[in-house]
Amino acid sequence: MIKAITGTKDILPVDISKWHYLEKLLRETFQLFNYKEIRTPIFEETALFARGIGEETDIVSKEMYTFKDRSETSITLRPENTAGVVRSFIEQSLGAQQSLNKLYYIGPMFRQERPQAGRLRQFHQFGAEALGSTSPLLDAEMIQVAYHILKNLGLKNLVVKINSLGIPEVRENYKNVLRDYLKDKKDNLSEESRKRFETNILRIFDSKIEVDQTIMKNAPLLIDYLDEQSKNDFEVVKNYLAKVGIQFEVDPALVRGLDYYTKTTFEIVSGSVGAQSALCGGGRYDLLVEELGGKQTPGVGFAAGMERILLACENEKSLNLPQDSIDVYLIRVDSKTEQNLEPALSAGRLDLKLELEIISLSSKLRQEYISCDYDYLNRSIKAQMREANKFNAKYVVFIGGDEFNRGELNVKNLSNGEQQLINIEDFEKLKSIIKS
Ligand code: AMP
Can you list the domains of the chain with their CATH numbers? Predict the structure, then answer.
């Protein structure tokens, strides 16, 4: 038997209502903040991610699904979507049409990580990017949008963490300070952190290993070396958040994995999902557009993991979704069905008049946005009733028997058991009962 690839998941019909709910909330929220959706391809040239995310990052060095297509072009399944959105922004000259582009996306991402709870190889993110302004109001707005969504999902156990990485010169200077601090402690770091010492020194702060954490506890902090502009911008972000009632923690160790961040970075973590606790992360990236060949354009954005968010919702039982249901199930009262013929034998032997009535009625109901379904398997009335209950039908309509011969239909309200006979021609009556 062929199985799904490790780290990928089928989203089955029993779970889909959660996804629909989340996606609806996302679209409504982005509309409230005036962000427009952008859909970019799920694969891009590998060079885009290598340049846009950074060769030294875990994503690019270890996790990408990269392959050559038939014309020997190196292709990568997108591991995140900022690079793709920025590629599109440059290629489609979006900046020429609109001086500030507030964009959002929803879709699958791919990373070859070790699968565990909250970590998949195909997962889904939604995210936003605002391209064209250096205003720290947008940094804070990003946090507000993400927070608004998480709050509206009923999540409680949330912590907003913010930090500033300053401008590149400051960061480079600080990296030397950090290098100095770690010089004589280097040999005690974990192997991974010793590697990062050479390639991506800030990431040592991300280490979950105890020896590293002990050493980093006393490390000098970038936030104490910030330039005036970054400091001021950070104050604006903090004031904005306080003004709109979002509590936050300043976390000087929040460095994030991507090279292109400048100034504000943030994460929202949940205490309800175990080790993989970051629900979303983002920050400002004023250098990325230029890095990818566009005109200098400041940007800020975030991405959030949908599986992880839904896991948090499940663990907090925060979603109270209505049960799936349909409005009407049409039940064929057919003496031939009652004989319980083998479906194959009975096929084509049902009462054609009844079948046509069902087709016509279902078609009229759907035209009126009344959802309905009926039996395709020549089942007995009892079995059709069971189906109606399984689908949580609000009404069943019995079509057939003496009533049908008299030109009537029997409509039954399944929540209170009330039944009414109505004239088969009186569709308006049927409609008004069902819509009442
Ligand atoms: P990143 O793009 O790494 O900043 O990730 C942003 C968010 O995407 C994280 O906070 C997670 O919620 C989610 N995420 C990242 N990687 C994975 C993964 N492998 N599986 C599931 N969710 C992920």
Answer: 13-167+227-316 (3.30.930.10), 328-435 (3.40.50.800)
Which residue has the CA at smallest separation from atom 11 of ligand 1? 305
Reading across the β-sheet that carries 43-45, which strands appear in turn? 43-45, 74-77, 65-68
Give 262's contacts (C-beta < 8 A, 6+ positions apart).
165, 166, 167, 168, 171, 283, 284, 285, 286, 287
| CB of residue 124 inside a 6 A radius of ligand 1 | no
Ligand 1 atom nearest to CA at 79: 2
Check residue 255 and give its pLDDT: 82
The yes-or-no verdict on residue 345 having pLDDT over 60 is no
226 lines ligand 1 (CB under 6 A): no
Which among 96, 91, 81 has a CA at the least distance from the CA of 41? Answer: 81
For residue range 18-74, what is the model confidence (pLDDT) as tens digits?
999 999 999 999 999 999 999 999 999 999 999 998 887 888 989 999 999 999 999
Note the pTM of the prediction, 2 decimals.
0.91
9 lines ligand 1 (CB under 6 A): no
